[in-house]
Sequence to fold (420 residues):
Amino acid sequence: MATEPTLMKAEPRGALPRSEEWWHTVLESCPFGVAIADFHGHAVVSNSIFRNWLGYTEAVLPANTELFTQFVEGNGGAFKVEGRHRLKDGSLVWLNVSVLLRPGTDDAPSHMMAIVEDITERKRAEQAPPEDENRFRSLLDNTPNLVFLKDADGRYLYANKEFERALGVTREQIIGKRDEAVFSPEQASVFQSNDLQVLRTGRPMEFEEVALQPDGPHTSMVQKFPVLDASGKINLIGGVVTDITERRRTEEYCKQCKERLRLLVDGVQDYAIFALDPEGRVVTWNVGAERIKGYKEEEILGRPFSRFFEQSDIERGKPAQILEMAASAGRFEDEGWRIRKDGSRFWANVIITPIRDNTGKLLGFSKVTRDLTERKRFERELKHERDRLRLLLDLNSSFASNLDLHQLFGAISAGVRSVT
Fold:
């Protein structure tokens, strides 16, 4: 309360009784301002602290005795108030004023005693945000996440700078508003439904929410949590929003790439293309693998790839050796007999490549197998024909000088029969 001072008429100090002179000395030693005035606006005594605070000399003192009287009478003879007071130089200060009525007697009239304390610095400290609060606000305003606080009715009480930037709004536009005033009805309905779940359960929950921002819809992972008051009752809902739009786009792109790769691999029927885990168990299977090896996907997944080897190779530990060599060398290629589901053999060309993550950790192996049985049979027949031709040429060389054709043809026939 800023009040204009009225002047109290000063009485000569010599008029004070001798006993009050002693009290004057006591008042001067007080660490706060003290003044005594009568109800007619006359200052009886005041200490220097009181006068210095107000900026007046002892001859002219400010007071609002009518105001003091009103408060004293309305509060049973005493009151205490904090308010702003204007000094002589026009500046305003905060004062804590305690006033006590001293009833009059036959020998002395009624007086008021005012004890005044300058609380300007304290008020400034109270009105200024605490340093811890400033640090906390600075932390929230510099986080890359959107942070907000709502009351139990869904009205926004706080939104950080990232919230303003992402949604293209100011705090003034959102504080005190509900979701439907900021977002579309469909989005607001989802957000409020999720808020109600947190209020009902009384525990933190995580939601995936989509909000329309100036550059289009954004998908976010929103962690919402209840805020309790001193009695343990939920009165606020806090939220931390992490934008996962780019992550979702990357995931969708990877998903599409994997699907295209799967279609490509499944479309290859002349090659068995599948993957193994680090222990050699089958984890993927394509159409070509089913055609060549005879196993359906549900029959082979999770089974060791050693079942494709002959028993003699298994006993020698060849499957494990192949994986070890592939892991150490970065690639392994082999040709040999392999076993189908029905027990028949086929001649296979096998290429095994290790699969590692960015840190070099072994995740498994890729395996490509070709059925070369027909080529192997053709090579065997071709070798057989070459052997027959070589024999004929050798016989021709041996008997070229012999004109006994009967003997020559007999030797040729015997040689042919020996290689058939």
